[in-house]
């Protein structure tokens, strides 16, 4: 999809504030409401806008610890990876799972948990029990330095 300056302005505005009304959005980008709405619908239908979400405050939900886990697998087979990925996708504490290169690990997970007891339960009773997990190395996040979801358009 070829994006013009109005499409890019729409994407930037919606990434910053997804609850803008069509009227507010049209005003911000300098279009009338009808063509603005048509463009937003076209961006949604193309899949470029994949969805809209609320961003929650983890600490206010009692999730005060964020950790990055590097997971090593015993075998590098499609079946082993598929099994691991399905098991990880079912864990609500896992915010992100990335298959990575350049490390001693195969996956990097970003997880949020209430406290160290919850981390211990997650690690020992769920993650390390997934067939094929041969090693886990954890780093705890001290502070967010850059925390954004907006993509450069």
TrEMBL record:
GO terms for cellular component: cytosol. It comes from the Bacteria. One of its GO terms (molecular function) is sequence-specific DNA binding. GO terms for biological process: regulation of DNA-templated transcription; response to amino acid. Keywords: DNA-binding, Transcription, Transcription regulation. Signal peptide: none annotated. Residues 3-64 form the HTH asnC-type domain. InterPro entries: ArsR-like_HTH, AsnC-type_HTH_dom, Tscrpt_reg_AsnC-like, Tscrpt_reg_AsnC/Lrp_C, Tscrpt_reg_HTH_AsnC-type_CS. PANTHER family: LEUCINE-RESPONSIVE REGULATORY PROTEIN, TRANSCRIPTIONAL REGULATOR AZLB. This is Lrp/AsnC family transcriptional regulator. It comes from Azospira inquinata.
């Amino acid at each position: 999809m070829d994006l013009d300056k109005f499409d890019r302005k729409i994407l930037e505005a919606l990434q910053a504030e997804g609850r803008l009304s069509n009227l507010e959005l049209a005003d911000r980008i300098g279009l009338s409401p009808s063509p603005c709405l048509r463009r937003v619908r076209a961006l949604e239908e193309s899949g470029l806008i994949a969805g809209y979400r609320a961003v929650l405050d983890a600490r206010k939900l009692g999730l005060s610890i964020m950790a990055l886990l590097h997971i090593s697998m015993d075998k590098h087979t499609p079946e082993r990876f598929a099994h691991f990925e399905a098991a990880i996708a079912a864990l609500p504490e896992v915010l992100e799972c990335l298959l990575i290169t350049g490390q001693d690990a195969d996956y990097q997970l970003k997880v949020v948990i209430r406290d160290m007891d919850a981390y211990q339960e997650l690690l020992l009773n769920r993650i390390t029990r997934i067939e094929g997990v041969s090693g886990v190395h954890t780093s705890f996040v001290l502070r967010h330095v850059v925390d954004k979801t907006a993509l450069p358009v």
